């Protein structure tokens, strides 16, 4: 029975590459055509595959609907939280998780620093969208026309001398973040606070959330905080792996 299940499941990634006929399925599985046909018929009965008019098989609508439903029911905060706690235990600094919703970037989780100096960010509170490292990651992943449209309608408050001053500068920063795959806020919102962030990606590679580590200058310098980037990125990759169903990255 386990071998039958294994063979049936092996058909799905093959069809994800594109439609295939009975011979191709049998060859990939290393079985006789009659065996492959039985497996395909069973999958077809459950809506997991669909036989086209040219007798080739493709993934079925039922499978796609189940995948979509599963993704909609995933709670990124629940998945990410243990990883955020572990990161906090390793570095001691404040850790945030943020998402992009309706033109706002919101913190949805926070693990407090172990140090006496605390940040005043709150879960559910929008971030300073033009300077926050998590916001840069989330917005950098948007299609170009959406990035430009958003940049043109934002205000650009000068929180500090390092704040993003205008749409052109913001789009340039987003392009840089998109290319390098991580982001920083080095005194852009508060002179004394620095932050480094990494993206969390879904199965399709799109950024679904962003996480960051933040600390005041009195605890660590900006350069010292940047040395944590590999750890932050490994943590984000671990969350991404668990969220998307891939193997999680080792911490």
TrEMBL record:
InterPro entries: GAF-like_dom_sf (IPR029016), HTH_MetabolicPath_Reg (IPR050707), Tscrpt_reg_IclR_C (IPR014757), Tscrpt_reg_IclR_N (IPR005471), WH-like_DNA-bd_sf (IPR036388), WH_DNA-bd_sf (IPR036390). Residues 2-61 form the HTH iclR-type domain. It comes from Streptomyces muensis. The keyword Ubl conjugation does not apply. GO terms for biological process: negative regulation of DNA-templated transcription. Keywords: DNA-binding, Transcription, Transcription regulation. Pfam families: HTH_IclR, IclR_C. GO terms for molecular function: DNA binding; DNA-binding transcription factor activity. Residues 62-245 form the IclR-ED domain. It comes from the Bacteria. This is IclR family transcriptional regulator. SUPFAM superfamilies: GAF domain-like (SSF55781), Winged helix' DNA-binding domain (SSF46785).
């Amino acid at each position: 029975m386990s071998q039958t299940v294994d063979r049936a499941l092996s058909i799905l990634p093959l069809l994800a590459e594109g439609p295939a006929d009975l011979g191709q399925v049998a060859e990939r599985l290393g079985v006789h055509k009659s065996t492959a046909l039985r497996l395909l018929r069973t999958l077809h009965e459950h809506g997991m595959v669909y036989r086209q008019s040219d007798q080739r098989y493709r993934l079925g609508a039922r499978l796609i609907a189940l995948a979509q439903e599963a993704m909609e029911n995933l709670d990124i905060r629940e998945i990410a939280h243990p990883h955020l706690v572990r990161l906090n235990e390793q570095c001691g600094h404040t850790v945030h998780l943020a998402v992009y919703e309706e033109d706002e970037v919101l913190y949805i989780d926070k693990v407090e620093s172990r140090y006496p100096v605390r940040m005043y960010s709150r879960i559910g509170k929008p971030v300073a969208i033009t300077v926050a490292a998590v916001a840069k990651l989330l917005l950098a992943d948007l299609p170009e026309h959406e990035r430009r449209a958003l940049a043109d309608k934002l205000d650009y408050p000068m929180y500090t001398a390092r704040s993003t001053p205008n749409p052109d500068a913001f789009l340039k920063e987003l392009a840089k973040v998109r290319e390098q795959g991580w982001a920083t806020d080095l005194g852009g919102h508060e002179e004394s606070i620095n932050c480094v962030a990494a993206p969390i990606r879904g199965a399709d590679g799109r950024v679904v959330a962003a996480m960051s580590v933040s600390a005041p200058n009195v605890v660590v310098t900006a350069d010292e905080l940047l040395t944590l980037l590999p750890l932050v990125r490994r943590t984000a990759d671990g969350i991404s792996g668990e969220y998307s169903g891939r193997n999680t990255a080792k911490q």
